[in-house]
Amino acid sequence: MNNVTLIGNLCRDFEMRQTQSGTSIASNTIAVKRDRKEADGSYASDFFDVYCFGTQADYAIKWLRKGDKVCIAGSVHIRDFTMKNGAKGRAVEVSVTSIENLSYKEDANQPTEQPAQQEQPSSDEPQPQGENLNDVDLSDDDLPF
Which residues have a Cβ under 8 Å from the Cβ of 15 and sit 6 or more positions away? Predict the structure, then answer.
């Protein structure tokens, strides 16, 4: 079984490209903090290259930005390649099957501002639904614990 789930922060905005058949591909790197402290008291991070296709790629381009905390589920793929100088290399990448934004946004129903060179989404596209947690009125009696 080849499954991986990572929670970390995006290192940059997603980069978009398309296959010859028109399928969207979005790629990025996610920084995942290790759970053990180093000798100096800091936490080291691991960096994973990730990519997603189709609707997941469209979602990532529209809604996710550098620094966002995300939960990514997918599978690990190893790709061997030859560099221009003839040296062999190996890339370990995560093919994303599910991605969720864990960062709080003041207005979660609006996409983040798009860079000028990217097409703006049309207003008839579906947008994630959610409510602002600051507007929820709960008393201690409403909580199940």
Answer: 26, 27, 28
Q: What is the pLDDT of residues 33-47, one digit of tens each?
A: 999 989 999 999 999
Residue located via tokens 């589920």? 73
What is the structure's pLDDT at 123?
46
Q: What is the CA radius of gyration of the chain?
A: 19
121, two tokens: 């989404």
- Contact indicator for 53, 87 with CB cutoff of 8 Å: no
Domains of the chain: 4-142 (2.40.50.140)
Per-residue pLDDT, 115 = 47
- Rounded to two decimals, the pTM is 0.69
Contacts with 53 (C-beta within 8 Å, 6 or more apart), sequence order: 23, 24, 25
119-127 long-range contacts (CB < 8 A, ≥24 apart) are: 121/62, 125/62
Return the bridge partners of 17, or none: 25
Query: If you search the block for the tokens 């960096």, which residue do you land on?
Result: 47
Task: Using CA atoms of 63, 71, 28, 94 in order, give the dihedral in degrees to the nearest 10.
Answer: -140
CA dihedral 96, 98, 101, 102 (to 10 degrees): -100
